[in-house]
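Open question from group meeting: does this chain pack into something compact, or does most of it stay loose? Before anyone orders reagents, we agreed to write out a predicted structure and look at it together. Recording both the input and the output here so the notebook holds the full record.
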Amino acid sequence: MYSFFASDRIGNILILSGREVKHYKVRRIQRKEEFIVFYNGKAYKCQFYKEEKGNILVKILEELKTKESICTLHLLLAVPVDIGVMDDILKFANETGFTTLRPLITSRSFHNKNIIERKRERWKNIVKESSKQAGRPVPLEILDVVDIYTAEVKGKGIVMDSRGIPVSLRDFKDFNEFTIAIGPEGGFSEEEIKILKKKGFTPIKLKPYIFRVETAVAVAGGIFSNLSLLS
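Structure tokens returned:
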């Protein structure tokens, strides 16, 4: 079933505007065909109502039950030097349950803050499209870029570090909020790990091999959003 994001609601009518109108028309949806529309953190089963002033108006048939993550996951991500990799990283972070992503400048990361800020709007669109596929009513939020000295931790801080020690994930299953720091290709420097540890981050190593950045994001999101499944 196709999914869209509404920009507004009037009574029992949701309004698709801007890019969503184009996406709706590309799908060639039939008049009585049902589809999902996300609005204000909720999901609705809808049908076409009418087209008006360049917008698509759809009528709500029923509100759908949405899946909510038990954990709040914040991703502190050193932007890869190959910044194009961010397209895949954003999809993985969004689909595995991260709540926020804050781009991070480190010694081995991409350094141009102006370029990162200019790409944020494109990244938001990527996350929005990913949310349609994932059935996620509230997309991953992309925050302002920071450097490692001003980075903050919310909840339990975890830094993925190939030099860290393997731990039992059961040690973390009673936490419901995490900030997970993931470095660029080559990882964080020793000095940066010291900085993160002073901020309260615990370095951990996942077995058995060293991950690429995008793989680390997908694995970390999948694991920490499902800690409640551990017995």
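Observations to bring back to the group:
The chain has five helices and 13 strands.
The radius of gyration is 20 Å.
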